[in-house]
TrEMBL record:
NCBIfam families: adh_fam_1. It comes from the Bacteria. The keyword Chaperone does not apply. It comes from Metabacillus fastidiosus. This is Zinc-type alcohol dehydrogenase-like protein. Belongs to the zinc-containing alcohol dehydrogenase family. Quinone oxidoreductase subfamily.
């Protein structure tokens, strides 16, 4: 089967940073599905894993996590899917990725592809949707059933125009929250407003001063999707007593938790690979939440966050997408569809 992998961890402009290869088609066992990949999307985690380091792989390492496609084989223990089902998912960081024509994935982290979306539109959603859903409803414990209470609560989403922010704004709006999103350019400000943000502030300026201009003194929830270190003190200053902060961005510097002590505020991490990485008892929750996302899409409650589509799926195109992600200025999601072109056999 066609695949794109790496042996060396190099900067993206290097010829061998990603290479076209041929690999044996995998065989599903247990609860695995074998999915024929129709489209993938590129995330910051792809770039982080590929980033230059001294390590050299003995066998090609296949990156990529977001995907949509068709189930072509199932393991003997599968319960939720059958051959021919259209699916979308974000995979596991501990297994070979989706830069491949056929891909094995545990059915417990797979959802039904939205009927109203194409494969490319669907591929834009899984990783960011899982991250946003878990951050909002599992980590921040935002009430989803009784939305009336949320009308009087507000959330600050830092980095609203990115992949996760684009879906988090929509889910927060669906939950009934009042939303403040950060964006620094006119095009990103327009994007987050279009998705449902009630107010937009600049993440390069004081949060407290900008919120005061909006007659907002504090926020109930904060979802940090950009540079935890940079925004830490800003977040501590505006979080409401007994409020909650969730971040998906690892820190490099010391985080002074004392700034949250007097407010009895909560800080929690979100990492969407936790459940699949550790095979947690509730791993199947990602299956159910992806099905819920699919349902909300088909009902028109939320929409895909695709903003750029490339083709075909090969090393050159994926390199282009990595370069765009590395600029740090992408809006929404970048999707790549269709396997075509000559492949180099290792």
């Amino acid at each position: 089967m066609k695949a794109i992998g790496l042996l060396k961890y190099l900067s993206i402009e290097k010829e061998e940073s990603l290479i076209d290869i041929e690999l044996p088609r995998p065989i599903p066992k247990g609860r695995d599905l074998l999915v024929k990949i129709e489209a993938i999307s590129i995330n910051p985690v792809d770039v982080k894993v590929r980033a230059p380091k001294e390590k050299i792989e003995k066998e090609p390492k296949i990156l990529g996590w977001d995907a949509s496609g068709i189930v072509v084989e199932v393991g003997e223990e599968c319960e939720s899917f059958k051959v021919g089902d259209e699916v979308f998912y974000a995979g596991s960081i501990t297994r070979p990725g989706t830069y491949s024509e056929y891909h094995l994935v545990d059915e417990r982290i797979v959802g039904r592809k939205p009927n109203t979306l194409s494969y490319s539109e669907s591929a834009a959603l899984p990783l960011t949707a899982i991250t946003a859903w878990e951050a909002l409803f599992d980590r921040l414990d935002i009430e989803l059933i009784n939305k009336v209470e949320n009308e009087f609560k507000n959330i600050l989403i830092i980095g609203g125009a990115g992949g996760v922010g684009s879906i988090a704004i929509q889910l927060a709006k669906y939950a009934g929250l009042h939303i403040i999103a950060t964006a620094s350019r006119q095009e990103t400000r327009d994007w987050v407003k279009k998705l449902g943000a009630d107010h937009v502030i600049n993440h390069y300026q004081s949060f407290k001063n900008q919120l005061a201009d909006l007659q907002i003194n504090e926020v109930d929830f904060i979802l940090c999707l950009n540079n935890t270190d940079q925004h830490w003190n800003n977040m501590g200053e505006i979080i409401k007593p007994q409020g909650k902060i969730c971040s998906i961005v690892e820190n490099k510097e010391f985080l002074d938790l004392n700034i949250l002590k007097n407010k009895s505020a909560t800080f929690v991490w979100e990492f969407m690979f936790t459940r699949s990485m550790y095979h947690t008892d509730d791993m199947i929750k990602q299956h159910f939440l992806l099905n819920k996302i699919s349902e909300l899409i088909d009902k028109g409650e939320i929409k895909t966050t695709i903003n750029k589509k490339l083709s075909p799926i090969n090393a050159a195109t994926i390199k282009e997408a990595h370069q765009l992600i590395e600029t740090g200025s992408t809006i929404g999601k970048i999707v790549i569809e269709n396997f075509e072109g000559d492949q180099k056999i290792l």
